[in-house]
């Protein structure tokens, strides 16, 4: 249709410049702030660059919910959180300022333990018991899967301890990297073996 | 488990479009508030949105309600249109946008909504009708009347 085409060409002529990224970033910051004030920010997240690449940090109003390595796929992790916890997820760095600062201090050898509220709701049952025990393994030390199993009163559950560590939703903050195999081999790690090695070396060098 | 995206991805995907809509129907001065009101309401309702919903049409519907609220508030405060367009001048969102803002501000509300929702962001007339109430045919007529009027304005015809 001729008239229709002309209409579109007018719309084309008038089509306004798209909003700039700066404009949108400002609006998004304000949205995050208003969402927080309105109690609608179920999950705030930010990323943090460091010696282990880009980390994703996510927090509920209760505490830090998830630390994820880039190899897990940051978008996928957020999609999982949307399904498991809430889709009300917004990039909002402020709630994660303390976590980011403490992690940077840790990477710089200026911190040996974390003082942050944690939200362990992604972990239940035996796995959660294992995670709650792990901070007892001090900075720069390691423990075997079997030792941890014994410590949580279930000495036969060595493999279950392994899977609790492998699915730790809060790596670094809950030090599953300090759990190694009894023969001295490192064992698996969500962030990859190189990351586990880096963390053990970092703590050994302190 | 639904395959619903994190809300942040919705803002990334649709934020620019909704801002264009808000600017076009309200002018730049009120657009930021309308945008933030829209996404805050959307965030609240998002967990209840069906996973297969048309997210863009849903957001435009919310933006439309926020726009009506803001227009009613503005009407109560009796701000003349001339003053609204003068405000638009000071924020300088680019010459073309200024022309558009000024021209659209002179259209009756219904024509302006139909021109923006159909011609600016490409919603089909049946979706425009759902947002505004009335029929798709009426939306098409209002958009056509709006375009005809825009065409008569100086400097806007190709």
Question: Key features?
Answer:
heterodimer; A: 206 residues; alpha/beta; Double Stranded RNA Binding Domain; Arc Repressor Mutant, subunit A; four-stranded mixed beta sheet; two-stranded parallel sheet; 8 helices; 6 strands; elongated; disordered N terminus; B: 158 residues; mainly alpha; 0% strand
Shape of chain A: elongated
Q: Count of DSSP E strands of chain A?
A: 6
Structural class of chain A: alpha/beta
Number of DSSP strands of chain B?
0
Helices and strands of chain B, in order, run as: HHHHHHHH
* Biggest chain-to-chain interface with counts: A-B, 39 and 43 residues
Briefly say what this structure is.
The complex is a heterodimer of chains A (206) and B (158). With 206 residues, chain A is of the alpha/beta class.
Polypeptide structure, described:
- The complex is a heterodimer of chains A (206) and B (158).
- Helix content of chain A is 43%, strand content 14%.
- Chain A is α/β, with parallel strands linked by helices.
- Chain A has three domains: 1-39, no CATH class; 41-119, Double Stranded RNA Binding Domain (2-Layer Sandwich); 125-204, Arc Repressor Mutant, subunit A, CATH 1.10.10.
- In chain A, helix 5 crosses helix 7 (158-166) and helix 6 packs across helix 7 (158-166).
- The longest helix of chain A is centred in the first third of the chain and has 17 residues, at 21-37.
- Mean pLDDT of chain A is 90; it is low at 1-9.
- Chain B has eight helices and no strands.
- Chain B is mainly α and 158 residues long.
- Chain B is globular and about 45 Å long.
- Chain B has helices at residues 7-26, 28-45, 55-76, 81-91, 95-105, 109-120, 125-132, 136-152.
- At the A-B interface, helix 1, helix 2, helix 3 and strand 4 of A face helix 1, helix 2, helix 5, helix 6 and helix 8 of B.
């Amino acid at each position: 249709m001729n008239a229709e085409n002309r209409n579109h060409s007018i719309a084309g002529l008038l089509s306004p410049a798209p909003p700039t990224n700066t404009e949108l970033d400002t609006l998004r910051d304000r949205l995050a702030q208003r969402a927080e004030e309105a109690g609608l920010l179920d999950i705030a997240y930010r990323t943090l660059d460091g010696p282990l690449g880009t980390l994703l940090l996510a927090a509920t109003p209760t505490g830090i919910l998830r630390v994820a390595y880039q190899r897990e796929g940051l978008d996928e992790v957020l999609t999982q959180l949307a399904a498991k916890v809430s889709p009300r997820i917004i990039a909002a760095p402020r709630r994660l300022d303390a976590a980011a600062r403490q992690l940077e201090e840790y990477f710089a050898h200026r911190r040996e333990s974390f003082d942050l509220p944690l939200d362990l709701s992604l972990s239940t049952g035996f796995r959660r018991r294992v995670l709650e025990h792990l901070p007892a393994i001090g900075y720069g030390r390691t423990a075997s899967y079997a030792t941890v199993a014994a410590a949580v009163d279930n000495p036969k559950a060595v493999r279950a301890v392994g899977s609790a560590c492998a699915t730790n939703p809060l790596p670094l903050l809950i030090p599953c990297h300090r759990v190694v195999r009894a023969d001295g081999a490192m064992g698996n790690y969500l962030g990859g073996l190189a990351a586990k090695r880096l963390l053990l070396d970092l703590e050994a060098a302190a | 488990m639904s395959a619903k995206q994190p809300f942040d991805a919705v803002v990334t995907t649709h934020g620019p479009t909704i801002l264009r809509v808000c600017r076009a129907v309200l002018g730049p001065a009120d657009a930021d508030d309308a945008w933030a009101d829209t996404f805050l309401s959307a965030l609240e309702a998002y967990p209840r949105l069906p996973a297969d919903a048309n997210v863009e049409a849903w957001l435009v519907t919310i933006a439309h309600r926020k726009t009506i609220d803001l227009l009613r508030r503005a009407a109560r405060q009796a701000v003349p249109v001339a003053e609204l367009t003068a405000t638009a001048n000071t924020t300088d969102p680019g010459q073309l946008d200024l022309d558009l803002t000024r021209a659209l501000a002179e259209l009756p509300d219904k024509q302006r909504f139909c021109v923006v929702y159909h011609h600016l962001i490409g919603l089909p007339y049946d979706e425009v009708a759902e947002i505004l109430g009335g029929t798709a045919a009426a939306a098409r007529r209002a958009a056509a009347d709006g375009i005809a009027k825009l065409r008569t304005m100086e400097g806007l015809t190709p």
